[in-house]
Every structure is written in structure tokens, then in C-alpha cells.
Design brief:
170 residues, mainly alpha, 7 helices, 70% helix, globular
Length: 170
């Protein structure tokens, strides 16, 4: 596969993640509706996954951090698919539309394709035989996790009313 095609696919994947992540804040109710009942305070999880999708999208767009985004998505995508499974098993409407059995199967196949693409960007195979020196003072994974935690912390601190208001109401 050509480098240009790989680059364009990563940018498209990144912008799709950004769009969906932002949508978690623009219209969170559509995501709250599909959350499984065993997740307490669904709005909290919707906002948190929105931040994570935005972070994954940004790291996918930037070529030097794509492998981190790919590795994160390998863990993240199966977890957020729980909402899709909940939609499927309990026939929950998404934006007022109830999907058919075939549409749920297509959505599952799309999720598998997204995982395969994330695996490709994760650069986990073939395993590297030697370690390269990292020139930054912090390894990239630690930096990414720190940035993600700092973003969530700032988001929670930005509006104190979120902590004791509607943000944590089920």
C-alpha cells in the first residue's frame, strides 16, 4: 500500500474520530440513550469517551503519534462497542431510528474493520528486534496518557457546576 494512501486513510480516520468525539459534546443525549444501564451516570461516560475520541483523532492525524492512537483504539473500540451491543440487544433507537438485524451486523463488521485498521497503525506486527532511543524526555505513551488525563481534569474543573449538577445525574 502506498504511503500517500496510508496517510490519507489515517487523516480520514482521525477526522472521523474528531467529528464523533465533538458530537459527544454537541448532542450528548443521542449517546446517553444507547448507554447500557449498568453504567452509572451515563452522561459522564459520554463526555469521557468524547474526550478520548478527540484525543485519538488528533493523535491519528499527527503522523508521529499514529502508532499510539492505533494502540489506544485497539483497547478503546471494543469497550465502546458495548453501547452498540446494548442498542442491538434491547432494540434501542439511535437518533429516533431503530436498526434492523442486518444493519447491526453491518455495524459489527465496520467495527471489525476499524479494529483491523487500528492494528495496522499500532505497528505491533512484525515485532521490532531492537529498541530505538527516544529523544524526548518522556516516552510518547506516557506523554499521551498524561495529556489525556490533564484534558479530562481541565474539563471537569472548567465548570464547577458540572461536578454537582446535571453532569453526574443519571
Amino acid at each position: 500500500m502506498s504511503h500517500l494512501l496510508i496517510h490519507c486513510l489515517a487523516i480520514s480516520y482521525g477526522f472521523a474520530l474528531l467529528y464523533i468525539g465533538i458530537l459527544h459534546f454537541v448532542d450528548p443525549t443521542i449517546f446517553v440513550e444507547i448507554m447500557p444501564a449498568y453504567f452509572p451516570r451515563p452522561i459522564y461516560w459520554v463526555y469521557l469517551t468524547g474526550v478520548m475520541e478527540i484525543a485519538a483523532g488528533l493523535t491519528m492525524i499527527y503522523p508521529k503519534s499514529r502508532h499510539l492512537s492505533g494502540r489506544f483504539l485497539l483497547l478503546f473500540l471494543p469497550v465502546i462497542y458495548l453501547a452498540n451491543i446494548n442498542m442491538w440487544l434491547h432494540d434501542v433507537a439511535f437518533r429516533g431510528y431503530r436498526m434492523t438485524q442486518n444493519e447491526h451486523i453491518l455495524r459489527l463488521l465496520a467495527q471489525i474493520v476499524l479494529l483491523i485498521v487500528a492494528f495496522g497503525y499500532a505497528r505491533l506486527w512484525p515485532p521490532k528486534r531492537e529498541f530505538k532511543h527516544i529523544s524526548s524526555p518522556y516516552p510518547p505513551l506516557i506523554s499521551t496518557i498524561s495529556l489525556l488525563c490533564w484534558t479530562v481534569f481541565c474539563m471537569l474543573q472548567a465548570t464547577p457546576s458540572l461536578l454537582n449538577g446535571a453532569f453526574f445525574q443519571g
